[in-house]
Amino acid sequence: MERPLRIAAAGDIHCSEPLRDRIVASFAALRGTADLVLLAGDLTTHGEPEQAAVLADAVRELGLPVVAVLGNHDHHVNRIDEVIEILRDAGIRVLTRDFVVLDVDGADVGIVGVKGFVGGFPGAELPDFGEPLLREVYRETSRDVDAIEAGLEAISGCHRRIVLLHYAPVPETLVGEPETIWAFLGSSRLAAPIGAHRPDLVLHGHAHRGSYAGAIGDVPVHNVAVHVTGDDFAFFEL
C-alpha cells in the first residue's frame, strides 16, 4: 500500500432491534474513512438470530471488508450456528479459531480471530488441575491459544498481521474492572503466541469498564469495547 491501512474497530456493540437506526448510521459513516472493519465480539445482545440480522443489514451494502469474532453474549442462547450463517450471508467474515488473508489495495492483511476465554493472570490463574469441569475450562482456553499460534504461523508472510479477540490477553486493558473478576475477563495464556510472533496489532473487547491501551512486549493491545472508547469505532493506521 502507498498509504497506511485504515482500520475501524469496535467491540461489544450488542446489536438489537431498538438499536437498529444507530447501528446502521454508525456503519454507513465509515465509507471513505476506513479500509477494513474489525469487530471484537458481543455483536448481539443475547445471541438471537434477529439481533444478528440488525448487524447483517448494516453491513450488507457497506462495500468494506468486515471481519469479526464472537463474544460470550453471542453464545448466550446457544443459537450460534444461526447467528454465524446470518452474518456470513451479509459478507461478514466470522473467524472462529481461524484466520483470513485479505488483499487491501495490494497489501496482504492477515487476521487471526478467536473468541478467547477465561483463566486469569499472574497471581490468580486457573491451573490444569482438579475437577474435570475446571480442567475442561483450562483446555478450552488452550484451544484458543493453539489457534492463535497456528494462525500467526500461517499469516507470517503478510504485510500486516492482526489478532482479533473478545477476551483480554493482558491485564493492563482490564484496569477499571474489579480485580476480583479479572480471571473471568481473559487469560495471560492468550498472550504467549502473540509475544512469540509479534503481530502489528491486537484488539479485544469484553471489559466494559477496562482501559484502552496495553501491550505484549512491543505489540500494542487495545480494548475497543465501545463502552471504553466512548465512540462507535476506534481508528488505527498500520
Question: How would you characterize the overall build of this protein?
Answer:
The chain has 238 residues and is of the alpha/beta class. Helix content is 27%, strand content 24%. It has a six-stranded mixed β-sheet with strand order 5-6-9-10-12-11. The N and C termini lie close together (10 Å).
Key attributes of the depicted protein:
alpha/beta; 5-stranded mixed β-sheet
Number of DSSP strand runs: 13
Q: Compute the average pLDDT.
A: 97
Helix content: 25-40%
Total of DSSP H or I helical runs spanning 4+ residues? 6
Classification by helices and strands: alpha/beta
- The side-by-side strand order for the widest beta sheet comes to 5-6-9-10-12-11
Distance between the termini: 10 Å
Strand residue percentage? 15-25%
Overall outline = globular
Series of secondary-structure elements, N-terminal to C-terminal: EHEHEHEEEEEHEHEEEHE
Q: How is the main sheet built?
A: 6 strands, mixed
- Contiguous uncertain segments of 5+ residues: none
Oligomer: single chain
Please compute the radius of gyration using only Cα atoms: 17 Å
Quick rundown:
The strands form three sheets. This protein has a six-stranded mixed sheet. 27% of the residues lie in helices and 24% in strands. It has six helices and 13 strands.
Which secondary structure elements does this structure contain, and how are they paired or packed?
Blueprint: E1 6-10, H1 20-28, E2 36-40, H2 49-59, E3 66-69, H3 80-89, E4 93-94, E5 98-104, E6 107-113, E7 120-121, E8 124-125, H4 132-154, E9 160-164, H5 191-197, E10 201-204, E11 213-216, E12 219-223, H6 226-229, E13 234-237
Parallel strand pairs: 1-2, 2-3, 3-4, 6-9, 9-10, 10-12
Antiparallel strand pairs: 1-13, 5-6, 7-8, 11-12
Helix pairs in contact: 1-2, 2-3, 4-5
